[in-house]
What does this fold into?
Amino acid sequence: MPSSVLEPGGRSATLTRRTALKLGAAAASAIGMPAIVRAQSDVIRVGLLTPMTGFLGVLGGYAAMGMRMAAQEVNEAGGANGRMIEILAEDSINPDTAATKAQRMLERDKVDFLMGEISSASALAISQVAARNQRLYVAVGPRSDVLRGESCNRYMFCTDIPNTVMVNAVGSALKREGMVEGKRFVTVTADYVFGHDLLRAAKAFFDANGAELVSDELVATDVTDFSPFLLKVRQAQPDVVCLNLAGNQVTNFVKQYAEFGLPYPCVGFNLNTADAWAAGLGNLSGTWPTVWYHTLDTPASRQFVENFQGKYNMIPENHAWISYIALKIMAQSINETGSAGTPDLIEYLESGAEFDILKARKAYFRPWDHQLIQEGYPFTVDPNAANEYDMIKLGEPVPSPDENMEVIYPSIEQNTCTL
It folds into this structure.
C-alpha cells in the first residue's frame, strides 16, 4: 500500500477495500490514501509500520485505530510538549518491505522515530534499520523473546508481553487445573521466527513442570487447511493439544478442530482477541493468554473502551489498546524531556519512569533489555456466552498483586541481551 499521513486531529481518506471489509467501515479512518507530507517544525512525525494485509492484517487495522485515537487525544490536549503529533502509516507487508519502508520514512519523510509492527520477523528487520540510523524504534506488538534477547539493540523498546510471559500466564492456570505434570502434549506451531521462539519457551515450560511433548507440527503461515495436522493429532492421542500459532491461523485451526470433534482439550500460548472473536461461539475452548481485554475493570480501561466504541462503533482489540498506550507513553516521554530526539527519549525510557497503561499497576521499561514490564492474564472460554465478545472470561492478573511483576519475565541471567 502507498504511504499515508494521518493528520493532527485525525483527518484521513478511505481505507483499502480489502481491510475495510475485514474491519468494517469504522476502521477506514485509521489508514489513508497518499498525501503530501509537509515539513513542519511544530509537528512530531511518527512512522507507523504495521501489517494491513495477510494473516496479521486484521490485527494491524486495530493497531492503527488505537494509535490514531491516542494521537488525536494528545493533539486535542495541546500536543506533546506543545507540538502536534502526525502519524505516517504504511503496510509493512513482510520483513524486506518493512525494512525498505522504514529507511524511506527516516530518509525521505524525516520521521522523528518509528513505531509499530506485530510480526516478529518484520520487527527485527525494522530494528536493524533503526540501529543503523541511530533512531528510536518502539516495537509495539511483536512478542518474540529473540527481540528482547540475542537480537536486542539500544534503539529498540518492546511494549507487548514476550513469549515467555504468555507461556507462564497460561502455564500457571493449567498447573492449577492439574493439566501439566505427567500430561502428554502435542503442539502445532507457526513456521516462522515467532512460532519457533514460542515453541522454545513452551518446551522449557514442559521440561520444568514434568510434561511430555509427544510431537510438534510446524505450519506455514499461508496454510488454511489443517486437516493433515488434525489427523496427526488424532493419531498421537495426546492429553492436551497446544497451539503456538499466530493471526488467523488460530481462527482457522480451532474452527476445523471443532468440526473434527476431537476429544482432547485445546489450549494455546498465543491468541489475539480479534482471532478469538473470529473463531466464533462453539469453536474456541480451553485456556489462553492475553495482555489486555476490554472487560478489564479499571476506571482508565473502561474509559478507553467507551471512547473507542464512541469513535469507531466497535469494541477495541488488544492491539488497539497496546498501540494506544504506546503512543501515550511516547507523548509522556516527550513532555517530560521536552524533546523528540532519540538520545533524550532513550535516557528517559531507561530511567525507570512509570506509565499508566490502564491496568491496576503502572508499567516501566527495564533499562538492560528495554522490555515494558506489566501484568499478563490468562482467559478461559464460556461456551454458554451470549456472543463472541462475552465468551472470553478474563482471569486474575499474573503475577499476583503482591508479587514483583518481573518474576514472569526472563531474568538477566536467562536473557542474552547485550545493549
The first strand starts at residue 4 and ends at 6.
